[in-house]
Design brief:
mainly alpha
């Protein structure tokens, strides 16, 4: 599909820096950076001399690996975006030729270079995260063609992998605690529902291009209910675990955050297409706040010798 270039305007030979930044989508970097920070907290270890490694890890999780995933997705989704969001850098023509692909490959290589600074755990995690990024968007796997598989890959990469890596890097490569891993995986499962929120704006293009997102497979209302259940159910398990681990205050705090999410979900469920963006802006920050509360619960338990 040809890129849309204004009549009488010669296509640019290369994209502007502003267009490159738009392709890499800084607004999407926050979740994995936050999850890495949760892993650092849950390690129970003081930053001390490892603060620089923690900072490098946060950069790797967001501006490197997550940014790579955005570039990869935009390149392989350029025909879908021409239907759903023609103003994006590639379908609009502001990212000419194969520059989108070149940037995706370059950022992949740069991410691996940065990951070398974090030792075997950090490098291995970067390989897994980058592999998931390419598998999500690129043929032949193109996991995003199925909403269940694609969203699971994103949730695992954005939340669980980043959390576990943060803990491992702080512990000089030692395996994180079972409690930390359990929480990381539970919040990864919850992030599956968050990923579904992004699909409501692309239903028309997804349906026409054969991408079976959850709104396409289940319908708008069915996908909205599935997203809410997927976000809430793991957090109920988190609350139960925190209470069982002797952290009633932290469990109560997460429970309060879950109640707030449930109240906001009522508005989302009434109009999923119109309110998905609103819920992403207000409900998701409440979800990730529970992640940090849970990380501090693990840290407190480790400090108490539990």
């Amino acid at each position: 599909m040809a890129s849309a270039v204004p009549v009488g305007t010669a296509p640019a030979a290369r994209p502007s820096l502003a267009t490159v930044a738009e392709l890499l989508k800084p607004i999407t970097w926050f979740p994995p950076m936050w999850a890495f920070g949760c892993g650092v907290i849950a390690s129970g270890l003081p930053l001390g001399e490892r603060w620089l490694l923690a900072l490098i890890g946060i950069v790797l999780a967001g501006p490197m690996v997550c940014a790579t995933s955005q570039a990869v997705n935009d390149w392989f989704d350029r025909h879908v975006d021409a239907i759903n969001e023609p103003q994006r850098p590639i379908p609009s023509g502001r990212m000419p030729g194969r520059w989108g692909l070149y940037i995706a490959v370059l950022w992949t290589v740069l991410s691996l270079g940065v990951a070398l600074l974090l030792g075997p755990w950090g490098f291995g995690a970067a390989i897994v995260g980058l592999a998931l990024a390419w598998a999500y968007s690129a043929p032949p796997l193109r996991l995003k063609r199925n909403g269940w598989w694609g969203n699971a890959a994103c949730g695992l990469s954005y939340e669980g992998l980043a959390w576990i890596t943060g803990s491992a890097v702080m512990a000089s490569g030692a395996m994180p605690s079972g409690r930390s891993i359990a929480l990381a995986l539970l919040y990864s499962a919850g992030a599956h529902g968050i990923m579904t929120l992004n699909d409501f704006k692309a239903i028309d293009g997804d349906r026409r291009m054969g991408i079976r997102s959850l709104p396409v497979m289940l319908g708008v209302d069915g996908a909205a209910r599935a997203a809410c259940v997927t976000m809430l159910a793991p957090q109920f398990v988190v609350i139960a675990l925190l209470a069982a681990w002797g952290a009633p205050v932290h469990a109560a705090a997460v429970a309060a955050l879950v109640v707030a999410q449930a109240l906001m979900m009522r508005r989302f469920l009434a109009d999923p297409v119109g309110q998905a963006l609103w819920y992403s802006g207000f409900g998701v920050p409440v979800f990730v706040s529970g992640m940090m509360v849970s990380a501090f619960a693990v840290r407190a338990a480790m400090g108490a010798g539990a």
